[in-house]
Every structure is written in C-alpha cells, then in structure tokens.
Amino acid sequence: MFAVDPEFAADEIELCLDFDGAVIVDDDDIHDAPRDAASCSSLGAASDDALARAIERLKLVDASALSTLLHRMDQLETAATASTRQLAAQEAEMRHLRQLYHSAIQETERLAQQQAQPVAMAPPASLQSSLQEVMEMDLKVHQLAKEKDQLASENQRVTSLCAQFQQEVMWKTLDLSDNERSLQRLEWQLAAEKTKVNDKTQEIADLRAKVAALEDQTTTLLKHKKVLITEVKSLQKYSHVNVTALAQDAHEARMVQKSLAEKLASVQHERDALQASLRAPPLPAQASLVAMDKATLP
Predict the structure, then answer these.
(1) Residue of 2, 119, 134, 264 with fewest CB within 10 Å of its CB?
(2) What pTM was computed for the model?
(3) 263 and 130 inside one domain
C-alpha cells in the first residue's frame, strides 16, 4: 500500500470523489493565498516528485491493492463530501451569527444613545443580558472563524489527496490495460501450447501402441526363430554334403535296381523257356539232363 505522511497518518479521513452533493461557497471573506513564481515552481516540483513516487509505487501494486485503493478513495470522497457540507453549514451559521452580532451592536448603540445622561446610573438588566449575549456571540463567531479556517485547510488537503489518488488510479488503469493485453496474448500462447501438447500426447500414445504391437511381433518372431532353429538343427544331418552323398547313393541304388530288374527279366525269360520246355515231351537226352538237374538241385 502507499506510504502516508506522518502528519496525516493519525487522521481518520474517508475520501469520496463523488462531488454531486458538494456546495460551492461564494464568500467575499475567503480569499486564495497569493502564489508567486517560486511557490508555483516548488509546488510543480513537489507534484512531479509525488507523481514519480506514485508511479514507482503503482508498479508494485497488484489487483488486491488496487481494490483497497479504490475503497480508500470511496471513503475519502465520502469524507470530502461530509466536510464540504459541514463547512457550508458552518458558514451559514456564521453568517446568521454575524447578522445577529450586527443587530445586537445596533441595539446596544441605540440604547446607549437613549440612556446617555450626565449622572452615572447602573445599567439595566436587559442591557447587561444583551451585552452578555453579544460577547458570547462574538466569541462564538471567532471560534467558528477558526473552525472555518481549519475546515478550509482540511478541505484543501483532502482535495489535493483526491487529485493525487485520482492521478495514481489513472496511471494504474493504463498499466492494467497494458497488463490485460499482455495477459490476453499469454492466454492465446498458452492455448496454442496446450493444443500442441495434446497433439504430441496423442502422437506419443500412437507411438506407444505401435511399439507394443512391434514388441508382440518381436515376441512371435522370437518364438518362430526358436522353432526354426530346432528344425534346422534337426535337419542339419541333411546338409549339402549328406544330400549329395544320398543322391549319389540313390543313383547307384537305382542303377543296381535297374541291373537287378534286367537280370530278373532274363531269369524270368529263362524260367518261362524252361517251363515251356518242361511242358513238351522230353527227348531222351533232355530227359537225362532234367534228371541230372533234379539230382543236383537240393
């Protein structure tokens, strides 16, 4: 919050910048203090310093401090309105008392002229009461004049505070507008970054699904690899050398089978011939040969 001068720190002032109910007093007895060039320049320098300090302080003010400042300004506006109304009432009462004072003086002079005699006489009771009232009115007028001066100085101080707070709020409003635009740009950038993050998250999820599928395929291929390794190991005995040897052995076996088939065919032909010859009536020589063959056969 803003620093307050020590002379104003103890004052309980509620300031309100709403001057709708303010009363403008036009009195010939109230005159502005004379202002020369030195006082104006010192006042301008003081206002510049106050403005610089206000700007420096406003840089540190956040939204909560601004709301507190606005509440304080409302209180000061209310106090200014109340003090203005009180000052107007005091001035009206002072004018009324001044009229009573003048009328009392005129009445006193009239009574003094009527009762002017060479022999000293005691003043009547009515004259004493009138003089007492005049003295009391005079004292009250002097007291009201002092209060009027105090209220005028207080009103001037409150007005200057109102102007200072209004200027500070104006600068703070400008700063807040710039901050709001910056915040809007940051929100747009954040929304774009969130969209990118969502896209990247979806892409990562897809890649993870693909990786899981590839891991399943890798597991299946490893199982197939083990089966193939087992089959290769089981077929290792049928290597290229063994297959060539087996092919050669098979060729030799086929050749042997062919030769055996030819031999079997020739043997069958001979057997058929022998059977045919056995069915024919044997000649004497042939009969002897057959008998010899049978004898030789086991």
Answers:
(1) 119
(2) 0.25
(3) no
